[in-house]
Structure formats: C-alpha cells, structure tokens
C-alpha cells in the first residue's frame, strides 16, 4: 500500500509539473497564431471496454493523423469526441493530453469548451488557456436555449473573457443544439463584443446561411470552417477556408487530394474525389452512422483501439464494421489508386 501511495503521489507531482510547464509556455503565446485553415480532424475520444478514457493512445493518434492522413489541426471534445458526455475533469485531462502530445507536431489544437453551465464553460476555457491551446470553441447551450442573438452573444462573451488571449471560435451546429439563430446574423458585429473572435465551425447544410457568412465578412479574414464532410466541395466553392469533421480522422488523405485538386482549379478531378467520398458516406449513413460506428471505422483504418462510445450511444455491430471495411477497400481501388 505504501508503494502504491508513493506511485500515486509521484504521478500527481508529475502532472502538476507538466501543468506548470504548459502554463509557462501559454503565457508567452501571442494572439493570434496563424490562420486556421485546411482540414481539422474532430477527434474521437478513445475509451476502454469499461468506458474509461484511454489516454495512453493519444500520442499514437497524433502521429497517425500527421503521418498517415496529412492532418495537422484538431478539434478536441466536440460532438465526435463525446465532449458533452465527459465530466469537466475528464475534458481537462483530455485537453492536456492532446496539447502535450501535439506539441511541435500539430499546427492547431482547438478545444471545445461549450457546456450547459456557464461556469463549467468558463473553467474549461481558462484551463485551455493555461495549457497553451491554440483556440477554444463554444456551441450554444441547448437545454435552456438562448432566445435570440443578444442572449447567445452574452453567453459566448462571458466564456471568451475567461481566456482573453486565446482565439475564439463559434461552433454552429443547430441540428444538435436546436438553436436556430443564423450564423450570418451572429457574425454581424461579433468582434465588437468578442475581440478574440477568429471564426466559425459551421455544421449545418444551409449553404445560403454559410454563403452569406463568407460574402458579408470577406474583409475580416475569419476562418470559416465547414462541418458537413460529405458536402465539403460545395462549401469550398462558396469560399470556405477549411473544414472540421470526423471523417478527416480516416479519410483525411483523400480529402486533402480533393483540396489540392480544387486549389489547382482542376474542378473535374475535385468533383470526382467528392463523389467517391460521398459513395462511402452514403453507404455508411444508410447503415446508421454515429459516433460508435465512426469509432469502429477508425479502429479498422488506423489500428488504434477507439473502444465503445459512452452511453447512451451504442457500439457498432460487427456486421457494420465488416461492411464498412469492404466499402473502404472498394473506394481505395476505384477512386484513389
């Protein structure tokens, strides 16, 4: 028991030392860093079979994204990462692991700090600043919902103030939050209220709203990141500066090929890549694509065990995993030789 107690004490001391180093590094960072653009992987949260976070594979996960998928930006503790199903303590520790393991490897580590409780969100924002995160993002609270733009801005402003030197992004995802305030309306004058505001993750299919965000803010150099993976090319045509999504964990390389074709103005090839990616997405969506299923695909592709999702989400069936694997192999041979 004495040995066990000493080991725990040593572990705690090491974690405190690491936090101190991260805080010292963060204090020297200036706002802003460089513009967030290109692909941003919405990271999954690896878990053990008993539902505990498997922190031990985060370093391997970082190397996989960078070396195998060509993705050097991540969005942590969002919807794909089951952020709202984690405790505040778990979210803090997970953020630390990603920042630590991503140092000198990743370009941007954006931490989602949205919560139903303003106090929890502020705590997470302050912690993200202390550990040297490259940005924070917040979705609208969705139990007691903001009734209008002013109420939403008031909430976001209080969270941003807890990390006054950290780039701030709004996470617009009305299909999950039920908050229908248009992003175009929200962006109007937002930097007057939130000076650290740098951009938007737009996870909705309303391309009229997204297009107006681009059109009406062309002089502001916002990062306008699209969040519906299977429609990325449409958003690029409308002026998206990048994208945040779950599929970039395992289809990052293929989506980067599409981005490169688009930048070369080879629109025919870019469209071919998009259609090929859509074939896979259409297939797995029809089978029932959720976080559990995404974890199963990622485990197959990367070899990194993602484990099950946390309840009430359900684990993917063996049948789903086998069919998705076969479809991915077909995609490789037909579209991305």
Automatic annotation (TrEMBL):
Keywords: Carbohydrate metabolism, Cytoplasm, Lyase, Schiff base. InterPro entries: Aldolase_TIM, DapA-like. Homotetramer. Pathway: Amino-sugar metabolism; N-acetylneuraminate degradation. One of its GO terms (molecular function) is N-acetylneuraminate lyase activity. Its EC number is 4.1.3.3. GO terms for cellular component: cytoplasm. SMART domains: DHDPS. Pyruvate binds at residues 80, 244. It catalyses: aceneuramate = aldehydo-N-acetyl-D-mannosamine + pyruvate. The active site is at residues 171, 201. Belongs to the DapA family. NanA subfamily. This is N-acetylneuraminate lyase. Gene3D superfamilies: Aldolase class I (3.20.20.70). It is found in: Cytoplasm.
